[in-house]
Design a protein that fits this description.
Blueprint (H helix, E strand, L loop, with lengths): L14 H11 L4 H10 L7 E11 L5 E6 L8 E3 L10 H20 L15 E6 L40 H29 L12 E10 L5 E10 L14 H13 L5 E3 L8 E3 L6 E4 L11 H12 L17 H5 L4 H13 L22 E3 L7 H19 L10 E12 L3 H29 L6
Helix pairs in contact: 1-10, 3-6, 4-5, 4-8
Length: 465
């Protein structure tokens, strides 16, 4: 008897949703529908396609396999949406985070499958956090436990990160910093190369002949709505991860160069005065944290696995962690409907008010990101593999599985002609399908967590994805 998802997920469903759920679950083709959803990983907003594919022998013209969506539930094939945001699709975000984990870890521990030798572990590498400057005092939990407001805030207190005095807090400066954070990072990496060249006694133009700087980074929003970057920064030889850096390029030299580069005036970005806004110059805040990355098992908290897991965790998050929306905002009235907190609301309004003053910065278009319009996770070219390569490897694996199931795995690819016609037919679920898909996703997540715990117990690896 085919397994069917629970018909009464918690909490109790709306009668309309429950009615639709029963309709879907009692349909003759439910098992195939559930199989499609499982293949998407429990995607909450799958892409619908209609069409067909035909495999023919090029020599004989024999039809080897024919597939059409006409026989699928609703006449559609459902594919994962691929959205990286956990707030939009937890299932696809989990896949994205897993890919990011492997990308970051490959650059720390090596990966022979992707031509990154294990000797990269011997290269100098640090985990650096570059923060935003202050835009005014906010409610916090300092080491002594008492905020400047005189209150000992709980860890989950909603006022944490909000302005002590909204009337004097520089909301305009905060969103303009977020908006220029990508440029500040670019200037930082340029200056870092100069600092490294100086420490090696080299002219800047000759650094590439001796040393290559590689990194992988992710952005994170603090509770106050200001960005900071977490970055794995590594030194390689001139040919990349396969070659060792010069002897003078040590972890200590790298850390010293990062501190100097972050503090240098070159890394600042100037924003001209406009309207009632003064001219500003933005640079990193004084809270800079640089720690060596250790191999697993040496007792350090900053291990390869821990760092990769940390970066992967934030690769699926964005400004919605501050209470903003995870999509572009049409009207300010939307903030009331969705209960956006006052501090975040003020940042969004600042984006709106500044937009006509700095039209090239597109602040209103990126108000839902509190002004930030860069990539949340990025890497230098030679740091490690790419997300595209990881996705292609997964697609090739799935294609090989399907070929085996169809009996086509023993045929040479060049002897098979593939004809196909696909059309976009929509996306998403009906209310009942959505509830059932959530149950499928929950089952998949539980199975993954169980398997992960077993591997963790076996290997003693607390950071393994």
């Amino acid at each position: 008897m085919a397994h069917r998802a629970s018909l009464a997920p918690e909490p109790l469903l709306d009668p309309v949703v429950l009615g639709d759920l029963l309709r879907v679950a009692s349909a003759d083709d439910y098992t195939r529908w559930e199989d499609q959803i499982r293949r998407t990983g429990g995607c909450s907003d799958p892409i619908h396609l209609t069409g067909w594919t035909l495999h023919k022998d090029k020599t004989s013209g024999e039809t080897l396999h024919h597939y059409t969506t006409a026989d699928e539930p609703g006449g559609r094939l459902r594919l994962a949406c691929g959205n990286r945001r956990a707030s939009r699709c937890p299932a696809c975000a989990w896949t994205y985070a897993g890919d990011t984990y492997h990308l970051i870890r490959a650059g720390l521990a090596g990966d022979d499958r992707r031509d990154i030798p294990a000797t990269v572990r011997d290269h100098p590498r640090v985990f650096a956090t570059l923060t935003a400057p202050s835009f005014g005092p906010v409610h916090n939990r300092p080491d002594h436990g008492v905020c400047r407001c005189g209150t000992r805030h709980a860890p989950d207190a909603p006022e944490l990160g909000t302005a002590l005095d909204p009337a004097t807090y520089d909301y305009a400066g905060a969103v303009l910093f977020n908006n220029h954070a990508g440029q500040i990072w670019q200037r930082f990496t340029t200056r870092l190369r100069r600092e490294l060249a100086a420490r090696g006694g080299l002219p800047r133009r000759e650094l590439a002949d001796h040393l290559r700087l590689s990194y992988g980074k992710v952005a994170e929003f603090q509770k106050r709505g200001a960005l900071h970057f977490h970055a794995v920064i590594r030194l390689d030889g001139p040919e990349g991860p396969g070659t060792p850096p010069p002897a003078w390029a040590t972890v200590g030299v790298l850390a010293d160069a990062i501190n100097a580069a972050a503090a240098h005036s070159y890394t600042s970005v100037s924003v001209p005065a406009a309207g009632d806004q003064p001219a500003r110059s933005f640079r990193w805040g004084t809270q800079l944290d640089v720690r060596p990355v250790k191999a697993f098992g040496d007792g350090s908290d900053i291990t390869e696995q821990a760092v990769a897991s940390y970066v992967a965790k934030y690769s699926t998050k964005a400004a919605e962690s501050t209470g903003t929306l995870d999509r572009r905002i049409g009207e300010i009235s939307e903030l009331d409907r969705h209960g956006v907190p006052d501090h975040t609301r003020r940042l969004i309004i600042a984006c709106r008010d500044l937009d006509p003053l700095y039209p090239d910065r597109r602040l209103w278009a990126w108000a839902h990101m509190l002004g930030f319009r860069g990539h949340f996770s990025s890497k230098s070219r030679h740091y490690s593999t790419t997300l595209g390569a990881l996705r292609q490897a997964r697609a090739d694996y799935r294609a090989a599985q399907d070929a085996g199931a169809l009996g086509l795995d023993d045929r040479e690819p060049e002897t098979v002609l593939v004809l196909a016609d696909w059309q976009y037919a929509g996306h998403g679920h009906t209310p009942g399908e959505s509830a059932l898909a959530a149950t499928v996703a929950r089952d998949i997540r539980l199975n993954r967590e169980t398997a992960r715990e077993a591997l963790r117990d076996q290997a003693g690896d607390e950071g393994e994805w």
